[in-house]
Amino acid sequence: MPRFEYKAIDSNGKEVTSFIEAANTQEAISRIKEKGYYVLNLEKTETETYEVAPVEEKSSPPKRRGLNKEITIPFLGIGTVKAQDLAVFTRQLATMINAGLPLVRSLNVLYEQLKAGPLRDIIKSLSDEVTSGGTLSDALSRYPKVFSPLYVNMIKAGESGGVLEIVLERLAGFIEKNVEVVRKIKSALTYPILVVIFAAGVLVFMVGYLIPKFIGIYESLEMGKLPVITQIVLGLSQAFQERWYVGLGFIAGIFLVYKLFYSLKRSRLLIDKLKLRIPIIGELLRKIEVTRFSRTLGTLISSGVPILQALRITRGIVKNSLISQAIGRVHDSIREGETIAGPLKASGVFPLMVVNMIDVGEETGSLDEMFVKVADIYDNEVDNTINALTSLLEPALIVTIGVIVLFIVISLFSPLVTLMTRIGSMG
Predict the structure, then answer these.
(1) 76 vs 209, residue with greater confidence
(2) Is the pTM higher than 0.70?
(3) Sequence spans of domains, the chain
């Protein structure tokens, strides 16, 4: 019997890697799901690799397995589905279902109007799966790289409650909010990054081309001992030209050590704790995580996802391990019949205002609405912090670059000025 290696997420949101024997891919997936796991990747150990492919009808011709056989290069955007495209698809599907169109017809309409690409192939696969009697949530779960556990579980809750169009609307809004936050951060960082790139280009030009010219001038004039500041700059220039690979190796080494250190649980907690204590930037990271936590949990609860399951999903979405640990304590607290606000306050990670608002939401029975309000408030806080950070960062970068360039210019021309002064006094 074939043997498969699988990667999945358990009920606690932890990643599990193991092996299972099954007659085929679909049987392996079913057996893994029976264990309470959410399948991320499935690989037949002998030859071929599968990534939860859609079910194919025997009577139909062989179909492509969506993204499974596509060349995928995430950082170049090749073979991937953009969040904005996913938001548009979700919004359009919600609109058509709300207008009374059957699900299969809505999917077919979206398929026909899209250009060739990964999302179009996936929509065709979803349509075929639903047509053959499967549920939309099961079909979506076959593409974990595109549809997150949050997306799949919300759709499943919408199907169970008969409110699929409402859930799709909430999902679209959720994705659009996330896209907007990322867009704002990228927009705020664009100018500083361009300044840094330009400054790096100027420094490379000066160190690699301009300074060596001055070295030749000083040698031809036989100026003797140069000022210390000039010797430092010339020495750095020569080291850069002759040992540039040492610098690159040093930077790469620091990066690898950081990655290794961050892969350890205790080290990761320490690093994430230190990140939150960085002036201004730490507060921005905290607000972004609070927004992500609040909006995700509020959206899941309002869509009918059980609170414990919603907390497990949310825990897997947040990036900071310290906050993830706090969410884990909330999960354990609720399972034992206690409140959400207590563990959040005890963690010391969440702002007191957030804790108080959640406490009020628990008392009034409007917890989902309160989470969404917290997310909206901190969306504005993130905007304000980004604007403040940008306003400080831009002049700081310009001043820093100016000081470095001025230092190099003074160090290069000071010997020439001294020489001209001596010549003038001799005349």
Answers:
(1) 209
(2) no
(3) 3-50, 83-176
The 8-class DSSP code of residue 163 comes to -
> 50 near 69, Cβ under 8 Å?
no
Angle, alpha carbons 264-287-181 (nearest 5°)? 100
Report whether 140 contacts 102 (CB < 8 A).
no
CA distance 392 to 173: 32
Tell me the CATH class for 83-176.
mainly alpha
Helix (H) or strand (E) holding 6: strand 3-9
Q: What is the pLDDT of residue 10?
A: 64
Give per-residue pLDDT as tens, 344-368.
888 888 888 888 998 888 888 788 8
- pLDDT tens-digit readout, 38-59: 666 677 774 433 343 333 333 3
Terminal Cα distance for the chain, rounded:
99
- Residue located via tokens 């969306």: 379
Distance CA 353, CA 357 (A): 6
3-state secondary structure of 215: helix
